[in-house]
Amino acid sequence: MFKPLAIALAISAAFPAVAAETTPNKVERVTVTGSNIRVSQKAGATAVQVISAKEIAASGKTSVSEVIRSISANSGNSYNEQFTGSFSAGTSGVSLRGLGQKNTLVLINGKRISSYATAQNLQETFVDLNSLPMAAVQRIEVLKDGASSVYGSDAVAGVVNIILYSEFKGTELSAELGSSTEGTGQTEKNFSIKTGFGDFNEDNFNVVFSLDGQKRDQLDQSDVSWMKDGDFRNQSGGSLNRVITNYYDGDPTKLLGGPQGPIRLTDYSSITNGKTGQVLAYNDAPYSTLIPGIERYHAFARANLRINDDTQAYAEYLYGFSRANLTFAAPLTVSSTLRAWNNQKQALDTINNKLPVGHPNNPGTTPLDFTATLFDLGKRLKTDEVTLHRVLSGIKGTAFGWDWDASLGYSQSSLEETVQNFVNRYEYEKVLKDGSYNFADQSKNSEEVRNRLRLSTLRPAKSSLITADISASSPELFELPAGSVGFATGAQFRQEKMDSRTSDAVLSGTELRPAINIIDGERKVSAVFAELNIPVIKDLNVNLAARADHYSDFGNAFSPKASARYQAADWLLLRGSASRGFRAPSLPEITKSSAVSYGAVVDPRDPIAPTKSRGVTNIIAANKDLQPERSDNFNLGFVLSPTNDSSIGLDYYNIKQSGLIGTQSGVDIIANESRDSGKIVRDDKGRISTLYRQYSNMGDRETSGIDLDLRQRFNSKDYGSLKLGSQISHVLRFAEPLSTGEPLTDGAGSNQFGSIPKWRAVSDATWEIGAWSTTLTWNYIGGYDQAFASDTDTAKYVDSFNTFDLTASWKLAKDTTLTAKVINLSNTRPPWDSSTDFFDHTQADPRGRFASAKLTYKF
């Protein structure tokens, strides 16, 4: 029996999900994410999870990313700053239903914001959650079904709408200090200021302003007690994690010099079963950053001004700055696969890397192939600085029974990435030729030679978005026997641009072994949409919506949707929806873009090692002929409210996607080399050195599952109030083809297509009495099958992951609150996953127990 489900069912959960907000004289109408029509019901035809500012505070989360990524529907294939090896280090995104960050639309106050300055995994464009202001968040609404009919592209899996304060009275200050238990303690500091003045009803204006900041130390693998030695031989599929270096003739047992610096003599058999002899190897834990050191600041301001009784103007400004520092990698290892970019040919040149005759490290009479790590140049370091701006202004009002809104917005995300201690190709060729650099005993190298070899570079990138929106809606367009017909319509224009460049050192061929993600494109999008809310009979409403988009690069997309809401009884709501959605090809996929990345393949035609994995370079190109990915979404559910203080919501979802955009796998290219010979480049020995790939519309994907939302509240005059809640997501199916043309394979409950646990749940209990408030949160991530387990792995399963968070707040005085929290109360380690380096960082983090104290003062 699934424990979180059983316990959550036993404790149930929360407040009325279907009651309307009312006053003695009128029904208050609200706009719910996923619709343009203001309605009186909190619970609509589609499932929307609402996370209030009070609930965010009770959770102990300190960033927008932590709040959103912790929801149960974020089931897999999303990344935060632990993904340090990407082109988007220091960022964070959300992936509803495990469909990737590119299929989840993130909005601010119901409107789009610029995507991050460059792409993640070469093709994914997404909104960086780490650039968004935590202090300004009033609530977060998560729509868990497709919404292309309302918002257009990217909403295939759902929508996360972050609602920022439009009004705030008084001033609130807070400061927080905390530390983790791993290593010497990863210290984190947070502060926030929130203030507002003006009463819109009395003064005809109001202004709200917030500022928050966060600073956290860097956490390296060498700081974590159970990872610092790099010895995982006690784990299934684990090994002594060592990097072999400093040898010649392609044979690790032929040593180039003796041990130096971090290099040590190691038995080859302790690293690789079946090997013999001694090798020079080092532990790479000190060169691996698990969580970057970060410094972030966010500001938000909004002003509202009443023009007359029916019209008001508004303007808002959002600013985010984020700096992430990390160790990118160990010093460069030079070998026979050494490359540099040739911009004229748009290809990689192979650099001659043989020790010439007469070189101090080559006592022979012929040039010598060799491998060596340039330890004396120091760790390769990376710093990413990201700046986000968004300016939005508009005017809205009512006229003739219609609500209308018109706005203009501009947002921009800019990146400056600097790297240190990479290697200058031209200086390297000089010192290799003249023998002035000693590979075998690097202590003999002069600082002048080292400085000549060291290379620091700057990679800039920018993404911008211009939007113009106009909409109008009427909740009472005309009357039918069962009630009023609601109607909404509108139009949108936006211009998207992305200019992600590489460094001048790469373009000039100066940087050795470059990774490249060049994106240069823009497009214009125009759209019209309409929505009808029709009362068919008493308590049965049908909503019809449609949106037509025109893209300047690929053409048109049409997205219809139909949904129904039936209040079968005071205690029972039935709901369902069916829609057609799409994801437009991202600018990296369809515009003038190219990328260089590194991977490994097994080549059965390799003349030396036909059964062994070999490192290769991938050169990936965009495709101007791409069409959008299409989706068919179906949702069905109910909300049961047996009392005013309890509710049970159950929703089923089914998403079918076609025309997924990707590149042909290395396995497919090699298997069809006779047909695709132009996609493979082999060296003079006949070994694969480069694979050429291009984006194309390829296979299909199907996913389905259920969401369970349980809420219960108890009130007692003597014992205060107790609120219980649980959100549980269960993936029934997550199927893709393993390679081009093959049938779908179900990867739910495995890491076949990224880790997709079948179960994920977040359950909490909040007790409030007098001046005290305490919240205990249980985070559950189900285990999953090890799809890539080798024959020698004793375990074919990755264990489930349970953590508990505890926050306690004490109102010291009317305006002062002290809050203490402990995240991961039991100091639980992430479960071992042999398919990753150590554990899956999309599901867990290595900080261990984290404790902090926060002081809040409001006046």
UniProtKB/TrEMBL annotation:
Domain annotation TonB-dependent receptor plug: ranges: 44-159
Protein name (record): TonB-dependent receptor
PROSITE patterns recorded: TONB_DEPENDENT_REC_3
Keywords: Cell outer membrane, Membrane, Receptor, Signal, TonB box, Transmembrane, Transmembrane beta strand, Transport
Signal peptide: 1-19
Main location: membrane
InterPro entries given in the database record: Beta-barrel_TonB, Beta-barrel_TonB_sf, Plug_dom, Plug_dom_sf, TonB-dep_rcpt-like
Pfam families, sorted: Plug, TonB_dep_Rec_b-barrel
